[in-house]
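B., you asked whether I could sanity-check this one before it goes into the benchmark set. Here's the sequence:
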Amino acid sequence: MTKNDHIRGVERIKGVTLPTWLLVVLPAILFGLAWEPLPFTPLVFVAFVPFLLLAYRGMKDKGLPYFGRLFLALMLWNIATTWWVWFASDVGAIAMLLMNSFFMYLPFGLWRMWHKRAPRSWQLRWRFDVIFIGIWLLYEFAHHRWDLSWPWLCLGNAFSGMTWYVQWYEISGTLGGSALILAVNVLVFRAMLLWRSHSETAVIPFWKRAAAKPLFTAGTLVVLMGLISVWLGHRAAGMVGKGEGYWVAAIQPNYDTYEEKFVLDPMQMVEEMQATTEGAQRALRAKGGRLNCVLWPETSLVSSINVKYMESDQQVAFLKGMRSRDSFQPDYLMGVNMVEWYPWQGKGKPEVVMPDKSVRTVAAARQSNDPNYWYTLHNSALWLGDTLSYYHKSKLVPGTEQLPFVSTFPFLESLAISLDENSASGTLGKSDRALALGDGVKAAPVICYESIYGDYVSDYVGDGAQWLAVVTNDAWWRNTAGHKQHFSYAKLRAIEQRKWVGRAANTGISGFINPQGESVLETVWYQGRAGRCESPLGDISAKDGGYAVGVGTQCALVQRIVPNDIKTIYQGLGDVGVLVVLWVILLVIAVRGRGKMDYVGMGMMDLATQVLVEVAAG
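And here's what the prediction gave me:
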């Protein structure tokens, strides 16, 4: 390899040059195979390497070619894994792909800026490939927390297809998974650059080559984290299975989102779902059990319920009447549409007095035909038991449920288009914080998109939630990888909080996930509806005593869960705490100090090796 080749980063493996076009398309292929629902998850340990090689190769190029190659590679990754968003909104899908690819490019842009602008002494002192890991983690952290949030491709989510390996998410959450994936990829990247650092004519054993050290470190790290995961999973299995059983039924009504759900008479659908609920109750009573809670999917009560007059709503009154006539009186947790009205004659949008006596403007309010009345629409969860309580979805889908930056730029509201699930333009109202619902045993009412926010789900547990209840309608994406990925991400939430997850989806996947992230009962797309699904209910594989019941075109999954009050390390630290810890570790590894100071990195490798040997011996 000539000096110029090394500068421009022409990487060779056994004399083979990796062409730029291959580096551009390879990440999409590798991530597409590694991401759910495909089973090749370990590919994530090398899938990011082509991005690093592209960035390294382009350091001496002009800015536009550097940006163009990386942007194209990142966009192909987005397309390969989230192309199905097109079915929900073609305009939204294009906007998401372009913007998310650009935001992913920013850490690479900072890497190039460091290479171009940072003093040479700084570049000798710090390993920026390690600092890059920290910057990417900052990007993921920030991308969870603004109006254009789209954390679907957080690297740590890739392990949703290999949950046995990430039982340590109870400590680190998905940020830890992202850090591990990036660390291994960086080590493989280093190995590729060092591969031909020795003379081509010299016969050198592999283990003596410079490239062997980062590869050995990467392998040690991967194995070590796997052993830790197995130990934590075994420990968790002995902790979370103890306690009084709690029977939950998850209803899958199988209404076509485009042709039925928002077209049929709302009361007709309520009565049909109630019939399915009663079928699940009868089956459980025949087994000597008692149903404690019924879970209905997102927007099950389509007709908007007035927040201030819930009990007088026809849908609510019907269900309260049915519950009162049932000797066992199960509780209901349902996805509903809600509306709240505000009489207001002042200037601008209505203002409300908060419990702390402060005054707040209702930013999501819309003016009705009567100029003296304003209203907000909500995608909500309703608890119907001995009491009535509700929670408004707070992690809203950008563009469809929330107009980005409308609070800062109010004129954007006039540009709203009808895309959201409530068939109404503008931003939905939301609760101020995560709220656990329930009269005795408390549930986290996680609504659809919220289930991909691990840190936000922690807030439900902090409010007293003892199990996670996900209500969703994934039918907007049709029968694609989208609904499978969404279900799979719920497994990570189970591990992070060590809680049971019950999931009711309009057309699937409905199911139950234990605190180790294992699916113990689940449906497939439209299962229970003949003509839409070829798999009969008898094909459902049940574990831990669960079972499926079919009523008409609908189905119900019934499972005994064990609610608990466990608070994990991740629940206490949150993403902020995890990010701080990871950054401290990365800074220690990244510092070169005087000269090379390679012993810092080698010391970490020796320590990891020693721990691995001790764990294996123990």
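One thing to flag: The chain is about 40% helix and 15% strand. Otherwise nothing jumped out at me.
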